[in-house]
Design goal:
Blueprint lengths: L3 E10 L5 H18 L2 E7 L2 E9 H12 L4 E9 L13 E2 L2 H6 L3 H13 L6 H15 L8
Parallel strand pairs: 2-5
Antiparallel strand pairs: 1-3, 1-4, 2-3
Bound molecules: flavin mononucleotide.
């Protein structure tokens, strides 16, 4: 059985994205991720993308290669965990996190702080980033984050 990995990155847009563009990016990603059995979420805010991905190590590496070469954005920082026990975002071929829902669960500020943290810090401590992901997964499972486009 192949190993399950996850990856979290922050990137900056190289062209302007509006809501329509984000929605079609999400729809296309969902289509492709379903085939590769990749799950996760995307959050677009202040010209940045914050994306969490999980899947079989090989499939994830393939996707990350494509993401790294995608001229629409530039990846600033990523962290990965090559061996996770289970998926955190089961059934979410690509969730689209929404600011109003993140504000309700009081994680919007935390995510923006992470943007700054990811831009300035070295890879040293990944612990808090994964804790943030665990918190988001908790609220997803409680039904506080919706999966609609
Ligand atoms: C911010 C961002 C997030 C993306 N997320 C995904 C994704 O989750 N899954 C995916 O297949 N492609 C995603 N893409 C698109 C890939 O970078 C790439 O364009 C696409 O996978 C190419 O597929 P193709 O070569 O099969 O056409 C994303 C692109 C951007 C800019």
């Amino acid at each position: 059985m192949s190993k399950l990995s996850c990856l979290l990155y922050l990137s900056v847009e190289n062209e302007t994205f509006d809501e329509n563009k984000i929605n079609s990016l999400i729809l296309k990603s969902r289509e492709q991720n379903l085939k590769a059995n990749i799950t996760g979420f995307l959050y677009y805010k202040q010209k940045h993308f914050f994306q969490y991905l999980e899947g079989n190590t090989n499939d994830l590496e393939n996707l990350f290669l494509r993401l790294s070469n995608d001229p629409r954005h530039t990846i600033l920082k990523y962290i990965s965990d090559q061996n996770i026990e289970q998926r955190r975002f089961l059934h979410w071929s690509m969730g689209n996190l929404k600011t109003n829902e993140l504000i309700q669960i009081k994680l919007e500020d935390v995510i923006i702080d992470y943007f700054k943290w990811m831009k300035t810090h070295e890879k040293k401590s990944n612990f808090n980033a994964w804790r943030l992901i665990e918190k988001l997964a908790y609220f997803k499972n409680k039904g506080h984050l919706s999966y609609t486009k």
